[in-house]
Write a structure and sequence with these properties.
Six copies of one chain form a homohexamer. The first copy, chain A, has 116 residues and is mainly α. Chain A has six helices and no strands. In chain A, helix 3 runs antiparallel to helix 4, helix 3 runs parallel beside helix 5 and helix 4 runs parallel beside helix 6. Chain A is globular.
Chain lengths: 116, 116, 116, 116, 116, 116
């Protein structure tokens, strides 16, 4: 894995573990719900990942964007589909989204350059 | 059409007309882009409408939610698909989204009750 | 009850019922968590209600503000405590909070004028 | 004055009075600062009103937008200047700003139709 | 002090000094108000710090979160109380708060590991 | 140029190039609009840059703030005018803007220290 992808995942995993071991019931259940909400239902997993991506982008949460880019990548979403999703996010959320777009694009490239 | 749906569309159409006749180039082009961004591309129209819906919901824009609910309704999106989209929005955006959820649900019901 | 308090509660109860009967698992669980998060724990109920109030105010969610004003009122929070909480919200969130402050103040007055 | 302008100002004045009489020091001082921040300095009053307008619009605060539209109107700002300011707001803040644009445009029309 | 705590405080102090020496009246007074708003009143200092913490967390301001974590730590707030406050913030503000939760948790650990 | 200014511009240019070469029509047009919106019209370039600065600051977008600080600097905006603009942003947007104020002030200093 590329440095950026690896670092993001390592920090995320380490701190999520700590948060969950802390045993705050509300936080644990929200983490749990997160897994449930993106599972297949009336909508398939790929569509849900794109919903998560666009929501994260308009709310300008870089870490959330990275997370959904990676899940989308693993689901086989194409770069063109990602770009259309990010295009909608930029239109709806405005030019303040652009700095996050730059970082999202870079992260996607790193995901593509990551082999095994 | 129900009262709420009708009123929303009438006010929206009237004021959009005025805004566009005002001839501010930036505003006109943004309106134009909005039409383009939700047209079929790598992603189909239905998926794009749901992306618009989830973005509008987490940004807590009632009028944008109504607009995308109506477009989704016309695209044949099912209520279950709408609810899964709104569920993701509420999880990502938090309980402050709930008041918008109540109004979205009511608007969807009015769309369903509207015949002809 | 005053008109405003009554209307808010009636609409809220009616639409919450509909949302919950719709059986979307994510939305139902988030509603459930909401009840849990504000129950007594390391922090008492009154403190938690004020936390909910300040969070709702800086996020500028009028309905959430009304809800936490009413719960705070029932917990015996004094007007002075409410005002200090709203003062912090206005300082942290800026003058865009002021319109919500006006509506919060009016709602609190209606709560106080409500007897039985 | 038109109905909408009159109603907005009446409610705003009534509730601001109540808030200020309540004697919360933080809230009183923030109200005070608001008057100071928009007074002439290195930048003139008109420029500052447009800064207030664009900030209010991207933060999607209808009442703040109305307030700055009215102050701008009294400072002799032209409709074209208002539209360029709102155009920047819509570009920076995205299409979720558009519903606020519709209401801003309507309010500006009412200000123009108000004679004495 | 740990590296992260030390660095945050050093940069914050250095830049605040510069901002205050610049003599912009509005900015100076807002800094002043900040000190006043969190002083004991109808609510005690600890409660006010938690109000500041929850507001900063839902508004996703990492530096503000760090500041209130440190003040809370000095006031003797327990980790369990911090976690309940952050739990409410995550529920109200949604899963986009989680990346800030990870950083908050890490900062709190550094505060606890700091002796003298 | 100072390190910070240089790094920001290099990364921004590199990633903007990639985004534009990707040929997503929506994103390309939004980039285009951005150039148009800040060109002279009824309002002059300097005023528009300050509008862009205050909008970016209240929306707490550090990269957008840096961009408008640099354009303002090139337009000959004085430090006092910048500070009045940032003062309004802090009042309207609240104390959560302050961390962005610290970074903006530092960036402005770097712009001033940059000679040829």
């Amino acid at each position: 894995m590329s440095n950026q992808v690896e670092e993001f995942n390592a920090y995320r995993a380490k701190m999520n573990d700590k948060l969950l071991q802390d045993n705050n019931k509300i936080i644990k259940r929200i983490f749990n719900l997160d897994t449930n909400a993106f599972a297949a239902g009336a909508l398939d997993v790929k569509t849900k990942e794109l919903l998560g991506l666009v929501a994260s982008t308009v709310l300008r949460c870089d870490d959330c964007v990275k997370y959904h880019l990676e899940s989308s990548y693993k689901e086989g979403v194409s770069k063109e589909e990602i770009m259309e999703t990010l295009g909608i996010a930029t239109l709806v959320g405005g030019t303040i989204v652009i700095p996050h777009l730059r970082r999202a694009y870079e992260y996607w490239e790193e995901l593509e350059n990551t082999e095994g």
